[in-house]
């Protein structure tokens, strides 16, 4: 019965249009009253849910991303990507994807990637005769890459939802190869669509111009090296690397590019506060929700149920992927990570899946959910950037969904894609 | 029929979890099933600081916790948490099984909790990735991760090393990459955290031999009849030898494993300079007459 | 009614602005603290133990203040499909109902946050050396603003003024 109260009030409030954070909080509040337990627990869980040092990476990475978009770092990365892969079939589409790889290396947010890369690429693509839906679709699905290639604050959210015992550095490292596989399969999809539609290629600008653009982008590119090198050489920890990203982004935009005015700085700060508060409020309230799930033994019941369905890890993983994809269409990423990790991770572990590997599957899966209606923040950003209705994007997005799904299957069933690289550092 | 919900941060199968489950079985038998115990392991209901509050408010009934989080709440719990206060695990058992242990259990009463029993937490020692530590000289300038507690930070500083706060989940890679040189813990945690893979020098200085405690919510306690209270208290008492036996086996298993994996264990150190270096720590934390007296009595316990 | 509400909105708007400035300053301060933590440990080989709990506390402030401002500005994530399918009157009823449960929750943040603060007040926080009550003050302050801004939403709706709709301000993941 208490589960009906918990999930019933949650769904009811969700339909009512109540913010997700408060749906989680209020349904927990209602359930704890129903159970006759002291309500103070709900608010304690909420407070301790956000009083976690590693969560600090979220405001920092978001802040750094805002500074980079406003301070011209993103534009220079995109220009470099243009020179590098523009001469492939469907040139600017390939550039768009490649730019996500590079921007993904400095930002952990898919929505930031979609607005930064999309904001720069979509108008260019339009002008060069590409259909807008093609430009938007590539922008949207391509930005999942930013979640996979470190840094990624969603990996941190996952580590914390798993009880803080999974190494963030390992998770960061584990995402790299799957992120590149995703980029590659999207580039293949882009190539096929471009061939069918007869899109142009760009001329290779020549080694000299390439070198110039590279030099221009170097201060941005160095950040990738700083973050990865700094974490791997022991100067700072994975969660501290987010702080270094902010400090470095400030340094480059203030002193090297001199591209950031005081007003830009203030608005970047406010934007970061708004986004962070929203994300972390969800995480806090999900902390209360998660406590009730644990108290009412939902995860244990779930393990039992899935055990009853099959004892084959291949089928269990497929099942979990399907459930996550469905949930992902309806809800956003961070709340889903916090809600589903305590339920699904024990199942995965019980079936012999490595927690780091499961984290990569989870992030990729929910990343796809960011690109699907009805609730898909990245899809909304992409369509807003391209000024097209969601239905128009939906008609032609399927080859890219297909590429992302194929990558998801590869990542799910080839653990080495995720686990090989971190193992090299052990 | 009442189910007492019990929290533990350790995983399923850990000695403390099994001990509370064994206690639950005794209670169930002795009350003809009127009372039973359900353990939520692996910190499902939160970290220790949080579950302590939940127990105080009566959201959960039983809680197995370390003494560390109580240090800033209940003065008496600081004494067994003092570095090098116990000469050995046997010494600790003798003290905690006796009247001093009872005094500390009684001190929980004022904080909406009922202290039921002390469990073993093993002894914590330093491990690091750099070198075998044989003297205080070796510790100089090294960076160790310790639990977020003023006393432990001061202890590490008094030994000439650097106490570095870090989230537990980042300790492994931080040792590996050199953000810190090492950490400190007991045999089972040194093993299960995998830290032995990156920090192979383990020096058994046993700076902390801190027992863990099983507490019950005062609110839940008051709901029980006097008989049932006695059943719970007795079962908790009887779960202690069960726990100690499991603990010894667990320690042995972990020790064998990390030794086989090539960890270098330093056992023959002279602890005297370490103990002498603790003077300022004792001066800072043992202030009241009550604590001074308790320390003196512990040191006098044979 | 409309005019009164417009004047009230100026006051609440100023409060939201102030909360944002406090939060923004907190974010910048946190950046400085953690940068110092890294610098001290790596360059000076001397670890600071209070920067971590200190910044966690600052983070609490800007999360709960920022979340409250999000109610006024409408930047929370929500699932607003049904809201778009119903008539204007039904939509207003739904939104008011939603604001009412948020008020209840904000009230909970205040009341139970205060209870937690009182319970923790005698304790001393490790490394910071201040009362444990400070852990819960952001929750109480955020709760107060959540209640205030939600009441404002209802009042504005009754006065026929527009309120920010959740989900329409673009959210990032
Ligand atoms: Na990234
Ligand atoms: Na979606």
TrEMBL record, chain A:
The UniProt entry lists membrane topology as:
Multi-pass membrane protein
According to the UniProt entry, its GO molecular function terms are: transmembrane transporter activity
According to its UniProt record, where is this protein located? Cell inner membrane
Q: Where is the TRAP C4-dicarboxylate transport system permease DctM subunit domain?
A: 7-417
Quote the cellular component terms of the Gene Ontology held in the record.
plasma membrane
Give the family, as the similarity comment puts it: Belongs to the TRAP transporter large permease family.
The identity of this protein, by name, is TRAP transporter large permease protein
Q: Which organism is it from?
A: Hoeflea olei
UniProtKB/TrEMBL annotation, chain C:
Organism, scientific name: Hoeflea olei
A GO cellular component annotation here is:
plasma membrane
For this protein, the record's Pfam families field holds: DctQ
Annotated membrane topology: Multi-pass membrane protein
Residue ranges occupied by any Tripartite ATP-independent periplasmic transporters DctQ component domain in the UniProt entry: 30-159
Complexes and interactors: The complex comprises the extracytoplasmic solute receptor protein and the two transmembrane proteins.
Q: Which branch of life, at top level?
A: Bacteria
MF terms from GO for this chain are: transmembrane transporter activity
Per the record, the similarity remark reads:
Belongs to the TRAP transporter small permease family.
Keywords on record: Cell inner membrane, Cell membrane, Membrane, Transmembrane, Transmembrane helix, Transport
Q: What is this protein called?
A: TRAP transporter small permease protein
**Where the protein is mainly located, per its record?**
membrane
Q: Where in the cell is it found?
A: Cell inner membrane
PANTHER family reported in the protein's UniProt record: 2,3-DIKETO-L-GULONATE TRAP TRANSPORTER SMALL PERMEASE PROTEIN YIAM, TRAP TRANSPORTER SMALL PERMEASE PROTEIN
Instruction: State the InterPro entries in the record.
Output: DctQ, TRAP_DctQ
Q: What does this protein do?
A: Part of the tripartite ATP-independent periplasmic (TRAP) transport system.
An individual GO BP term? C4-dicarboxylate transport
- Transmembrane stretches, start-end: 20-43, 55-75, 96-118, 130-151
